[in-house]
Write a structure and sequence with these properties.
The protein is an all-alpha fold. It has one domain. It has 3 helices and no strands.
Amino acid sequence: MTRAGALAAMVGGFTIVNLLFGPMLVGNARINLFGFHPVFIGLSGSFLLGFVVSKLSGPAPSHLVERYFYVKKRDA
């Protein structure tokens, strides 16, 4: 997961859920795509957006990966 992927997932999932629940604001029923609850569609869309955008934006910088995921050995 990259920074761009995380942002796309959060904003995309929020937008999808709000669009599907939006008709309730004017008195209509919510939109159930394929019979699924809007939250499920939002979570699925969020996962898909995060995955695709992370793949398109490339890997994280190596110095950050080393900083957070590798332990430096101390001299004894």
